């Protein structure tokens, strides 16, 4: 039984990693790496500041990785990938809008003080 299970698991991984791997699968993997890279950017920025921060690069990588993943979902016709990305991209863009609004407000306040 264990021999059969190990054989079946081996065939499964061969199927998803080798047999079904194509250009779109490579794109999907790249999309996940871009999306995941945002956490490395956030971690480095937090370590430098010695506190938890979310830099602009986090949101840019979130949008790019999310868009890439959404494209992959459309190509693969996978609603499980598409729906969460649509909502997430909206949230990432909204965060950038709030950051821009705060920066504009801070600039106006600084100009008023001088």
UniProtKB/TrEMBL annotation:
InterPro entries per UniProt: Lipid_A_biosynth_N
Any one GO biological process: lipid A biosynthetic process
GO cellular component: membrane
Keywords of this entry: Membrane, Transmembrane, Transmembrane helix
Molecular functions (GO terms): lipid-A-disaccharide synthase activity
Organism: Microvirga guangxiensis
Lineage start: Bacteria, Pseudomonadati, Pseudomonadota, Alphaproteobacteria, Hyphomicrobiales
TM segment ranges: 23-41, 53-75, 81-100
UniProt protein name: Uncharacterized N-terminal domain of lipid-A-disaccharide synthase
Signal peptide positions on this chain: none
Sequence ranges assigned to domain Lipid A biosynthesis N-terminal in this UniProt record: 27-98
